[in-house]
TrEMBL record:
Alphabetized UniProt keyword annotations: Membrane, Transmembrane, Transmembrane helix
This protein's name: Uncharacterized protein
Domain of life: Bacteria
Residue intervals passing through the bilayer: 7-31
Transmembrane is among the record's keywords: yes
Organism of this sequence: Salinarimonas ramus
Amino acid sequence: MAPGAGLAFLVAGGVSSIPAAIAVFALYLGYALVGSSTVGLPFQAWA
């Protein structure tokens, strides 16, 4: 398999089925919550 095709399959793996897509979305929401809190709380304390 060509490296580009392998990368495309690897990236698309999270959306190839509904349970996998839900898991990826939950992971994205977790990162968004942690990241926004990590930035927002120190800024609120500083501002």
